[in-house]
Amino acid sequence: MDNVRMLIVDSVQHAKAGHAGMALGMAEVAYFLYRHAMNYNPTSPNWFNRDRFVLSAGHGSLLQYVCLHLAGFQSVQIEDLKCLCKLGSRTPGHPENVVTEGIEVTTGPLGQGVANAVGLSLAEAHVGARFNKPDVAVVDHKTYCIMGDGCAMEGLSNKVASLAAHWKLHKLTLIYDNNHNTIDGSTSLGWNTITVDNSQGNLEAFKNSLISAHSETRKPTFIRVKTTIGKLSKNDETSKAHHGTFDDDDVKKMKQKVKWDDREPFHVIPMVYSTIEYQQELEWHSKLYYYQNKYPEEAAEFKLLLADGMLPGWESSLPKWSMSDPVDATRGYSGKCLNALAKVLPGLIGGSADLASSNQAYLHNFGDFKQPDGLVLHGGGLIPFAATFLVFSDYMKNSVRLSALSHAGVLYILTHDSVRIGEDGPTHQPVEHLAGLRAIPHLLLFRPADGKETAGSYKVAIENRNVPSVLALSRQKVAANVEGTSAEAVGKGGYIISDISDKELLPEIILIGTGSELCLCEASANVLRKEGRRVRVVSLVCWRLFDRQPRDHKELVLPSSVSKHVSVETGSPLGWKEYVGAEGFVIGIDNFGSSGPYSEVLKKYGFTEEIVTQTAKSLLAK
């Protein structure tokens, strides 16, 4: 423990940055987990049946880096500890799963890691229920999570703790770093709750708490560990120890306390390095071999799931719509797509918080994830979807952002996507939300106009397993099936849905729309064409995909020689100038919406065929 703490001190002093307080206080706990409790193989960090560890208190990342180094992970060497918080290093200020092997999930915004840990444990329970047999368990691993006071203060932690207890995720152990701060509320939320006093380095008590956690078969375990923040420092037990460097006198006295005076910075005693022989993975492969021979059909599906694979031809299951089909809301088209995909994608799993019928995100003829006895589940944990109203995406913004940062291919089904929801008023009418979500790096936001574009959006979203996707969908029926839309063209992000008849000429004006407003653009274009105007209509269903297209495609769709553009979208105008240009006009909303019949609300904000047509004529007259 002295060596672990000195590596923490040396790293912070060398970097002149970092959060040492929690790392010093929880050193025994983390080291014991990596040395004695968890099953993993540092030479095979992605071994499927490894135990998972999540540091929800992500500011304590240095503690995890030290443990990874001592455990033998090649991703963290002494030189990496010396590069703590440096640009481009493998030891950033908070853990990032795409930067450092051995980090399961990216954490930092407090409470998010607790939710991630519940999700990992849910996935283990779910896949285990599908594939384990009475005589062999090929899915059998635990999830550990360290949280702090900041995590406990976030409502998210309480919500997912309730779910974990309800689902009886007994292989989940949540360890609370109780460094003498307060926590609101009771911890008796259906959890197996244990208190350990580790302020004096009592490893035996912590070991016993883990034995209790492992023997629990009905509840997740919450271990409340009393620690000393900034242990060894003169600032211990104070908020001053939370982050920052130590003064020279403090470092000198810390070294004296543990007889470290004569050792160079970043010294490691050889015996501290892990010498465990990692037999667990070999034993698991032996189980898997037995499983393949006895249960070949399930083994084939299981291995496909582990490889992030999908059944060949899955995309052909997506519904196809024609102009003669009855019109629906895009949420209705989405529900049909989702249920069609559920039959061919065994890894599809998700839900909605009390809004499944409104979001049309319910998987028909499939069971819910329920408490044991007898988990009867459908779909795997590898293609998760979540559904709510677009306006409520603010509640989940940190989670959406982290999924993009973590390269996690989550599907977010966000319905009721505009002021068209009418009478519910501005509290439920999203305005700035599309712009805010589009600003998240890597995230794909689709706003489909009809059934064809909805199916195309699902295809692209599911194909992109390393980025999250948002499907922004309407509550009300769209005005019409739009002739010229294409499921395949969605992959381009933006494309021409109708154009002038003479291909030798350029359009005089281009109308650009998304979602429900694409019908409006097409209706206005038809009026203008009857008056002899050369009008093109473009669907910009996904900005980011369009921006990634080769210059030739973008020039084909939006020629630089055509300066007159009108964009039409019931949301914030922010960002649209990039597409309409300096001489273009943006029809958007820069207020909070209004309560009233949706047709009247649309008229108030300029979303009618007449206003779009008049706007286009005004531009053409210049």
From TrEMBL:
Cofactor(s) the protein requires to work: thiamine diphosphate; Mg(2+); Co(2+)
Gene3D superfamilies associated with the record: 3.40.50.920, 3.40.50.970
Complex formation: Homodimer.
Domain Transketolase-like pyrimidine-binding: 328-480
Taxonomy of the source species: Eukaryota, Viridiplantae, Streptophyta, Embryophyta, Tracheophyta
PANTHER family: TRANSKETOLASE
MF (Gene Ontology): metal ion binding; transketolase activity
Domain of life: Eukaryota
Similarity comment: Belongs to the transketolase family.
Enzyme Commission no: 2.2.1.1
Keyword Metal-binding: yes
Name of the featured protein: transketolase
UniProt source species: Anisodus acutangulus
EC top class named in words: transferase
Matching Pfam families: Transket_pyr (PF02779), Transketolase_C_1 (PF22613), Transketolase_N (PF00456)
Biological process terms in GO annotation: isoprenoid biosynthetic process; pentose-phosphate shunt
GO cellular component, one term: cytosol
Record flagged with keyword Repeat: no
SMART domains: Transket_pyr
Keyword terms: Magnesium, Metal-binding, Thiamine pyrophosphate, Transferase
PROSITE patterns: ISPD, TRANSKETOLASE_2
